[in-house]
Specification:
It is a single chain. By secondary structure, this protein is mainly alpha-helical. The chain has a domain of about 40 residues. The protein is about 65% helix and about 0% strand. The chain is built from 5 helices and no strands. Helix 1 runs parallel beside helix 3 and helix 3 packs across helix 5. The radius of gyration is 13 Å and the shape is globular.
């Protein structure tokens, strides 16, 4: 298993800041797990309809970071 780099993260997510990259790297997720998390966050309906199990472990952790990053900042 190869550790994710910021470049690998940006291949999947597009541009990210250093904080987001560090959070994703800190989970120990693989690029495949990152791709799956992104798929769930961007549009979970096809995955649910295909009876895919909900994300667990590192994939779920990354998905949560991605969901939180999409939420509007209440302080702005």
């Amino acid at each position: 298993m190869t550790a994710l780099t910021k470049e690998a993260i940006e291949r999947v997510l597009g541009p990210v800041d250093d904080h987001m990259a560090a959070q994703v790297v800190g989970t120990g997720a693989t690029e495949e797990e990152l791709r799956e998390a992104q798929a769930w966050v961007s549009n979970d309906e096809p995955l649910v309809n295909a009876y895919r199990p909900f994300p667990q472990g590192r994939t779920a952790e990354v998905a949560e970071f991605l969901r939180m990053a999409q939420e509007p900042d209440p302080d702005r």
